[in-house]
Automatic annotation (TrEMBL):
<dbReference type="Pfam" id="PF02375">
    <property type="entry name" value="JmjN"/>
</dbReference>
<feature type="domain" description="JmjC">
    <location>
        <begin position="262"/>
        <end position="430"/>
    </location>
</feature>
<feature type="region of interest" description="Disordered">
    <location>
        <begin position="1"/>
        <end position="72"/>
    </location>
</feature>
<feature type="compositionally biased region" description="Basic residues">
    <location>
        <begin position="1"/>
        <end position="15"/>
    </location>
</feature>
<dbReference type="GO" id="GO:0005634">
    <property type="term" value="C:nucleus"/>
</dbReference>
<dbReference type="InterPro" id="IPR048615">
    <property type="entry name" value="KDM5_C-hel"/>
</dbReference>
<keyword id="KW-0408">Iron</keyword>
<feature type="compositionally biased region" description="Low complexity">
    <location>
        <begin position="29"/>
        <end position="44"/>
    </location>
</feature>
<dbReference type="Pfam" id="PF21323">
    <property type="entry name" value="KDM5_C-hel"/>
</dbReference>
<dbReference type="GO" id="GO:0000785">
    <property type="term" value="C:chromatin"/>
</dbReference>
<dbReference type="InterPro" id="IPR003349">
    <property type="entry name" value="JmjN"/>
</dbReference>
<keyword id="KW-0479">Metal-binding</keyword>
<dbReference type="GO" id="GO:0141052">
    <property type="term" value="F:histone H3 demethylase activity"/>
</dbReference>
<dbReference type="Pfam" id="PF02373">
    <property type="entry name" value="JmjC"/>
</dbReference>
<dbReference type="GO" id="GO:0010468">
    <property type="term" value="P:regulation of gene expression"/>
</dbReference>
<dbReference type="InterPro" id="IPR003347">
    <property type="entry name" value="JmjC_dom"/>
</dbReference>
<feature type="domain" description="JmjN">
    <location>
        <begin position="100"/>
        <end position="141"/>
    </location>
</feature>
């Protein structure tokens, strides 16, 4: 999950707030200031934690340091080319982007989280991203101690003015939550003071125009720190975490926004959603950080999650616990191929060196450029309490407005309509020689053995028998493809001279931590 955007997200990032904010939505004036510039900060004297961030976790989702190799002349040529292009064409202020879909579930609809998501998925997928505003009264407890000055986490140093170049990030400071909040507040104060602007007068549109002006023209150098892909076992989840397996909970929940027990067990709690009724990820028993175990994200002014899609083209859900708004941009799966062709045309030399640059979450392409190529792009603004969905194969990116720091949490899940997307992504990983976070073929086998919904006759009122039949046919198609490919590859081995074939021992069908490791 990518990002603020799951993400890797991935990013994972996602009116009527319904109590979604927290006391930390505004910063206390009694707190001392942090450093004025993240780029000039001294390294932290504290030791890096041995675990807890993406650099010590699953290698595939450690996307911040792709390890590019560049010589100085190439970098100078790239900057000169971009500057020359900006002068020749002239900067075109980013125009308002068409809004993505926003959904307002009733209390009754909100009682079955997966069924509701399934209900809105077809419409939301047309935009690549969509927002869900919970009913009035939604107020989950804030389980993260935002004043914590003990637990350390790593950050990435982002050069906002060079995000068009597709360069990897350097390491930022190690922070505690308290020190990161102070740094975010100090950076914001210094930036607005330098501009002689009262941040209270700025609208969402002002932030959007300024952000893309910096990205597209590099008219000022700007470095910010972004804390992404943080392990909930180290920094904590913003939602309550309970040990009980929620896979056997009732599909229709008793909604009681005043009850702590409700927030412990609802599937809107991102710790529970991947294994809730109707999510196919419940059949993966392994705990995969950033996939079926949430990641946490802390951002400051202009901290960015760059264009990306989710691991295995999964769905993602991103919840904002507290803090400054986030701008999100989405491109639907139907425009994915066209967008990638345009992206490659903008930085061809990067793709010459790194053909899999699409996977690295280090490049921003402005909505202006995207629309010039007749590609559909949509936007939304996420506030505390808002839920953002991203859809299979849909690209998304965004940035923090950062009047103060913000905290988001994201995780993946998948519905039956994901099946063909999962296959496409599996084939793409094969083409680029990349490892998948889980074996797609093995997952299909597990689903076939257990049944898509062994204890669910339907996914709430929104899923009819025809939809389940369609999902079953997609799974059957996948199994036929796997069998055909297996036979073909075995025949090739025999023809190449293999003289002995030994059948593998039978084993349990679970996708366990041992298998995933």
């Amino acid at each position: 999950m990518r990002g603020g955007g799951r993400g890797r997200g991935r990013g994972r990032g996602r009116g009527g707030r319904g109590g979604g904010g927290s006391p930390h939505d505004t910063e206390s004036s009694s707190e001392s200031s942090g450093d004025c510039s993240s780029s000039s900060s001294e390294p932290s004297p504290r030791q890096r934690p041995p675990v807890g961030t993406s650099r010590s976790g699953r290698p595939l989702r450690t996307v911040s340091n792709p390890g590019f190799s560049h010589d100085a002349s190439e970098e100078r040529m790239l900057r000169l080319a971009m500057e020359r292009s900006a002068k020749e064409v002239g900067y075109e202020e980013v125009a308002p982007v068409a809004p993505a879909r926003v959904f307002y579930p009733t209390m009754e609809e909100f009682a079955n989280p997966v069924a509701y998501i399934n209900h809105v998925a077809k419409e939301g997928a047309r935009y690549g991203i969509a927002k869900i505003v919970p009913p009035k009264g939604w107020a989950p407890p804030h389980m993260i101690n935002y004043d914590n000055d003990t637990h350390m986490f790593e950050t990435k140093l982002q050069k906002v003015h060079r995000l068009q170049e597709g360069k990897s990030y350097k390491d930022g400071k190690d922070h505690t939550l308290q020190s990161y909040r102070k740094a975010a507040r100090a950076f914001k104060a210094a930036w607005f003071a330098r501009k002689d602007i009262d941040p209270a007068t700025w609208t969402d549109r002002d932030f959007e125009k300024e952000y893309w002006k910096i990205v597209e023209t590099s008219y000022e150098s700007l470095e910010v720190e972004y804390a992404n892909d943080l392990d909930v076992s180290v920094v904590g989840s913003g939602f309550p975490r309970v040990a009980r397996d929620v896979r056997h909970d009732a599909r229709d929940e008793h909604v009681d926004f005043a009850s702590r027990a409700y927030y412990d067990h609802t599937a809107w709690n991102l710790n529970n959603l991947p294994s809730a009724h109707g999510s196919l990820l419940r059949h993966i028993d392994a705990q995969i950080n950033g996939v079926n175990v949430p990641w946490v994200y802390f951002g400051m002014l202009f901290a960015s999650f760059c264009w990306h899609f989710e691991d295995n083209y999964l769905y993602s859900i991103n919840y904002m616990h507290t803090g400054a708004k986030k701008h999100w941009y989405g491109i639907p799966a139907t425009s994915c191929d066209t967008f990638e062709r345009v992206w490659k045309s903008l930085v061809p030399h990067r793709f010459d060196k790194k053909p899999d640059l699409f996977f690295h979450l280090v490049t921003m392409v402005s909505p202006t450029v995207i629309r010039q190529h007749n590609i559909d792009v949509y936007s939304l603004v996420q506030e505390p309490g808002d839920i953002v969905l991203t859809f299979p194969q849909g690209y998304h990116c965004g940035f923090s407005q950062g009047v103060f720091f913000n905290c988001n949490e994201a995780v993946n899940f998948c519905l039956p309509d994901w099946l063909p997307f999962g296959r496409l992504c599996s084939e793409r990983y094969r083409d680029f020689g990349r490892l998948s976070v889980f074996s797609h073929d093995r997952f299909m086998y597990v689903l076939a053995m257990r049944g898509l919904f062994p204890d669910d006759h339907k996914l709430g009122e929104s899923t009819d028998e025809g939809a389940l039949v369609h999902a079953s046919r997609m799974l059957l198609d996948e199994m036929n493809r796997i069998v055909d490919e297996e036979i073909r590859l075995r025949d090739q081995l025999v023809q190449s001279g293999i003289v002995m074939v030994v059948a593998m021992a039978k084993r349990d069908d679970a996708l366990t931590d041992d298998e995933m490791g």
